[in-house]
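Re: Re: token formats

Sure, here are both.
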Amino acid sequence: MAGRDALVIDGNPASRTALITMLRDFGFGTVLHTGRAQDARRMLEHRHFDLVICENHFENQPVSGQDLMDDLRLAQLLPLSTVVVMISCEAGYDKVAEAAEAALDAYLVKPHTEQALLERVLQAFQRKAALAEIIELVERGAHLEAAELCEERCAKQGPNWLNAARIGAELRLRLGQPQAAQALFEAILATRALPWARLGIARTQYQTGGVTHARRTLESLLNDQPGYTDAYDVMGRVLLDQGEPDKALCSLRRASALTPGSVSRLLKLGLLAFYHGDPKEAAETLKSAATLGLHSKGFDLQGLVLLGTLQFDRGDLRGLTQSLGALSTAREAQPQSPRLRRFENALAIFKLLLERQVPEAVRLMQAALQELKDPDYEFEAACNLLSTLSRLLPREVKLDELPERLATLADRFAVSHTTCDLLCRAAQGQQEFESVIRVRYAKISEHAERAVSHTVAGQPRQAVTALLDQAEISLNAKLLDLALNTLQRHRAGITDSAELLERAESLQGRYRSYGTQVTLPAWRPPGVAAPRGEGVPHSLPGSSLEERRHALDGPSNDALRCDRGGLRAAGLARAAATAQAAAVIQVAAVI
């Protein structure tokens, strides 16, 4: 153990001291420690540890060890190479199962001996060593190579093949290849009925457009495992996609109740309550999230924008000023971030309105309206803009070219029934806004349906060129995704498919925001999180041109299906989750 660093997180001084002594006896070079989960969060966000030993229960603290590890896992702040051991007084099957679902390396029940701890730690490091090549590829971002290596290990079913298969399946989901991921999950289920593998099947079903099948799988899983928090997270996404926001809220409330100290889940719940629920619940939930994790890398600052909006609605100038101040402080660390600049401007407009400085608020809004076609403009920015506009216009102000700007926004971001509905909700009852959004979405759907008709008539090239022509005008990701889907399916029959693919990729290279649905973030491989406040720019799944091409060459996951908003490519649900480790409205990923 020489040269390895360890962190002990335990609120009991005697227990913490005993663990520190044990680790030093094992030969660990550096052993740091803390008695507070919140302090541990900050330490783990800023320093790498080879081993983390965490107590599950913290007396008189709002965060449990499980909450802490869940947040770090969702925020991708624990690299795959780190060994995590959870220690608890609870020995029941459910607790041990929870540890397995959270991908912990070991679960140890108190009281335990020094020898028992040593054995668990050594076994965990041996597993990490067996997966070292895979871990190294993941942590340097070579996800495609890592996934292929995982599949080789799975096929041979040698030592630690289950762990390799789990990593490989998650990577395939990250690369937008759910069918390949499903094959790995099914291989795991063929040997053991593991809940996390069943959840993996539900996620692959969802990503390939089988929302109804995903819901049935999740219902069966939750019937067997009613305390499985991650399953409630995914169920929330499925229910929202099926147009049942009230049930989605119930699912997220259940997940948050099971892990009350999880900042990411509080943010998810707060976001959904903001658009689909009770403003009072949204405000309370978002405030709790900010209290627990405002200074954490896992706290998505979109939560502050929504909280500030609700503070404006209540006329709470003091609270709004505090939220704006926190955003300004965060922006100082990332002065070039357009996302944080837009966040700050939105709350600045609200503050100016409460201070009755309407002309200055109008000036800032006019500037914001000029950005709608910027390459880095995202769906959450569009929602925030509509939310701000809906609160500014009642002041009887006049904005230049507002109808044209609204049409531009709707053309770009109304890509599905879900996003169309969410944009309308952001408009806060402004009938003029809602009318424009729904009319423009209907036109986008007409373009998509016309292209499908060309394909059915045996004219796939005409379909692709028509879709790309409209995508270049509107920047609508639905049309671009459908063009890529058609290219994927009919490449052999399109003589200039390479040129058309280059044209599509050029468009995505400039406009990477992939406006589809609300993001309630999904798993991403460790070590690839974006800086706080920034979303990972992405087009096709994958982090490189080679990976994006490979995604197109792989098995099709874009079977067309119909939903209430009209024809759409099910591939819009491909995972390209951002690293904003909290609930955000994000252009480019599945819910």
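Second one below.
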Amino acid sequence: MKVRLIFALISSLAFSCQANDINRSFTQPHQQEYGYAAVVSKDGLLYLSGIAAPGKDMAAQVAHVYKILTMTLEAHGSSMSHVLNERVSTTDIAALTKANHIRMSYYPDGHFPASSWYQVDRLFAEDAMIEIEIIAAIT
């Protein structure tokens, strides 16, 4: 009985330590209201929630989103050259394909991440055509 109690205590302490080394960043008040963090870091990795940005067309939105991604990564100790994975959701794959040269220009020296693109009916922000999630290594 004592062994089980000690094991349970040690397990709960280990879980508490693991939970404490997770850092969450909230950049907008609505993030807590909707129940998500903009950036989570753990074990040398950054996880960025989907980022969308206004713009008159796909090219403008792509440029704006990647500018925000770059600034966010740099503010958290990383860079675009350390992006490991990107998940792109778009309402128009054809328009995104035409604007892909803008996306590619943000990855220095061809350090492209693993990437998946998905076409969806709509994104959370109704006027958004693109939303991007990132996983990056902290430098």
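The helical segments are 2-20, 29-34, 58-75, 93-98, 100-105. The chain is about 40% helix and 25% strand.
- S.
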